[in-house]
Amino acid sequence: MNSDARTESAPKLKKSKNLNLFKNKYFIICLAVVIIAIIVVIILAALNNKPADGGESGEVLENTDIYYNGSILTEADQEITKETLEKYVDLNIKGHTQIEDETGKHDIVAVEVTNKSDQITSIAIDLAAKDNDGKTLDISSLYAEGITPGQTQLFNLFYYTELTPEQLDSAKYEVYKAYTYESPNITEQTESEAITEENTEE
User: Fold this and answer.
1) Which residue, 22, 76, 127, 190, is most buried by CB atoms nearer than 10 A?
2) How many CA atoms are closer than 13 Å to the CA of 68, on its beta-carbon side?
């Protein structure tokens, strides 16, 4: 009688061990899935916040006024721009208009640059077109090369832009970057003036 009882209880004990083993495997699998999910979330978050072109993050770059086309102005760039506008150039942004040349009609932004310094210089200016939210829509560049003191040059910017006439009309225009640079023409003019002075003295 006792022998039969032991025989009947043995399978139940074995079954209980198998059930515990199954539960342990299930727990380990669930734990592994959770850990993998956490790792995937961390990786995706890191990729989304990866610095873009030297910036802090994609979100920061989208909201900043000094970011354009993969470049960020440094503090030195901003200081040079400020100094150039204060010492070397008067900028008159005349605004959106339409011109016609041999290739047809073109919507442009007319800009006048005047050398307000007392020396011949070359000036480069990047002008940004911004929407009402301050987002940069496009940037166009001009190079006023070898302009004399007081001289004014007219430039047609955004000649090749993909912006519509309506966008050019409503855009706000701000200097993105400005700087002076050495030009071979300035050297030629300076040497020519020196020769003229020597001939005058003789």
Assistant:
1) 127
2) 18
Distance CA 139, CA 130 (A): 9
Architecture of domain 72-191: Sandwich (2.60)
Q: From CA 122, how far away is CA 99, in angstroms rounded?
A: 26
Question: Which residues make beta-bridge pairs with 121?
Answer: 147
Which tokens hold the place of 15?
């079954």
Q: Which of 96, 102, 104, 103 is nearest to 164 (CA)?
A: 96
Question: What's the pTM?
Answer: 0.58
Structure tokens at 191: 């040497």
Please choose, from the candidates 64, 65, 69, 77, the residue with its C-alpha nearest in 3D space to the C-alpha of residue 53: 69
Q: Which of 141, 140, 148 is nearest to 183 (CA)?
A: 148
- The predicted pLDDT at position 46 comes to 63
- Quote the percentage of the chain above a pLDDT of 70: 66
Whole-angstrom distance, CA of residue 23 vs CA of residue 179: 72
- Beta strand 152-157 pairing with 136-147: unpaired
